[in-house]
Design goal:
Layout lengths: L3 E12 L2 E7 L2 E3 L3 E5 L6 H8 L7 E6 L2 E2 L3 H8 L2 E4 L11 H11 L4 H14 L15 H13 L5 E5 L7 H16 L3 E5 L3 H7 L2 E6 L2 E7 H5 L4 H9 L10 H4 L2
Parallel strand pairs: 4-9, 4-10, 7-8, 8-9
Antiparallel strand pairs: 1-2, 1-3, 1-5, 5-6, 10-11
Helix pairs in contact: 3-4
């Protein structure tokens, strides 16, 4: 049996009178490139926050790399083995890129030489090697995304959680990141990715889940999905977003 990287049962999160995540049952095998899709406000980021221990669920269970994320000791053990690009990036603006990566590396107990070697390699690969003396607050949004990815990869985790990693990233960097993530999964590691760019998800991911109004409405391998159409067709049909009529604004067509 393939070991499980992520497994939830009836995972639920309520904010006041609003149920953001509603009884979600996820199962992600190790070595999977899992695309987690949904419209804005569907519950993707809230789910990732619960999977990574940043937010406690209202109900349900969460297992990550065999660790119970509701148990403090087990949660800490899981966090040593995961990397995260969170929704808001959570960088330290008044550090340089090198200072930030050293900080992350030391938190994970890496030797300084290891931190320096890995940092240099990733900053070069992500075309940030000429920006190392700038403070993070001077970085563009795309540069901050790339630095966040470098920090997530630095400890060589078994599992990556990536919340919109391609947003704001230029075309060249996007190709580099795609290749980097594909290599990461090829060695047996796992990626849990959210993205609004369906073409990227369809190209990269081996499995997909779709969340709508907090409920998991579809979960399958990409091969199974392709038996009935494209990812775009499946997503639009599953979410009820598909409309037969052509979208248009009449006033834009007037001369």
């Amino acid at each position: 049996m393939i070991p499980t990287a992520i497994e939830t049962h009836q995972l639920t999160r309520v904010f006041g009178n609003q149920t953001a995540v509603d009884s979600v049952d996820l199962k992600v095998a190790c070595g999977t490139f899992y695309g987690f899709l949904g419209q804005n406000g569907a519950g993707k980021s809230t789910t990732i926050k619960m999977l990574t221990g940043l937010l406690s669920p209202t109900a349900g269970t969460v297992s990550v790399l065999g660790c119970n994320m509701l148990d403090h000791t087990q949660s800490l053990e899981a966090k040593k083995q995961i990397g995260v690009i969170p929704e808001n990036l959570a960088l330290f603006d008044n550090l340089t890129a090198i200072e930030y990566l050293i900080f992350i590396g030391r938190i994970h107990g890496l030797e300084r030489e290891t931190i320096r070697d890995r940092s240099d390699e990733m900053l070069h690969l992500l075309s940030l090697e000429r920006e190392t003396k700038k403070l993070v607050l001077e970085y563009s949004h795309g540069m901050r995304k790339k630095l966040s990815l470098a920090a997530a990869l630095l400890p060589n985790p078994k599992l990556l959680f990536l919340d919109e990693p391609f947003e704001g990233v230029d075309a060249v960097a996007s190709v580099t990141i795609r290749d980097l993530l594909s290599s990461f999964v090829a060695k047996g590691s796992t990626v849990f990715l959210t993205s609004h760019v369906l073409e990227i998800v369809e190209r990269l991911c081996t499995h997909v889940g779709i969340i709508q109004s907090g409920k998991l409405i579809h979960q399958s391998s990409m091969d199974e999905l392709h038996q009935s159409g494209t990812l775009e067709q499946c997503f639009l049909q599953a979410t009820g977003a598909y409309k037969n009529q052509v979208a248009k604004l009449e006033w834009l067509e007037q001369k």
